[in-house]
Amino acid sequence: MAADEEITTGAGGSDQRVVRGRLLVATPGMNDPNFDRTVLLVIEHTDEGALAIVLNRPSGLEVADPLPGWGALAAEPGVVFVGGPVAPDAALVVGRVTDPAFDRWAPVIEDLGVLDVGLDPADLGTRVADVRIFAGYAGWSPGQLEGEIDAGAWFVLDGVIDDVLSVDPVDLWADVLHRVDQATLYASHPPQPWLS
Fold first, then answer.
1. What confidence tens digit (pLDDT) does each residue in 89-139 have?
2. Is 15:8 a contact under the CB 8 Å cutoff?
3. What is the spatial distance between Cα 82 and Cα 112, in angstroms, rounded to a whole number?
4. Residue 122: DSSP 8-state
5. Which of 156, 140, 152 is closest to 48 using CA atoms?
6. CB–CB of 131/93 below 8 Å?
7. How much is the pTM?
8. Whose CB has fewer CB within 10 Å in the chain, the N or C terminal residue?
9. Cα separation, 167 vs 162, whole angstroms
10. What is the pLDDT of residues 11-67, one digit of tens each?
11. Are 131 and 77 in contact (CB under 8 A)?
């Protein structure tokens, strides 16, 4: 993304389409603690609603603990990420596919997509690399996400694979905002400005 690329919010006149592969970046005014200072990747958006995963909430649980076979393929940090408040016991596997003919994945951004968690990682060979495991996801009913964007709760940005597989996910919110000229001020916004 170019440094001068325009971000999208509900107040702007630019493209507000929320489609697979775009990022939702919480604005400082986000009032939901589930999404405070989060960056989400939109996995699906249809007339029936939207599904996304939080990219910057690593847990302390090593991937190898609940899913031993996936541990060797896990990108650093090799922990399970809290993908969102919906279905926290469900696992989503997102990874980079090295074999374009591989048919057990749904592309999201270029060669990165959602994999079938039921796959046996030992059978994948070199077809898949750099996976990230998410526990739970975020979901919206029809029109709900669009309403939140119109209310100014989210910036909508183009997705970048390096954001999804960031080795420094805790700083991802500020890092993403620093890339966009109009949002640099937000990136240094303290979590509780009234205490500063």
1. 999 999 999 987 888 899 999 999 999 999 999 999 899 989 999 999 999
2. yes
3. 19
4. G
5. 140
6. yes
7. 0.86
8. C
9. 9
10. 333 345 678 999 999 988 788 999 999 999 999 999 999 999 999 999 999 999 999
11. no
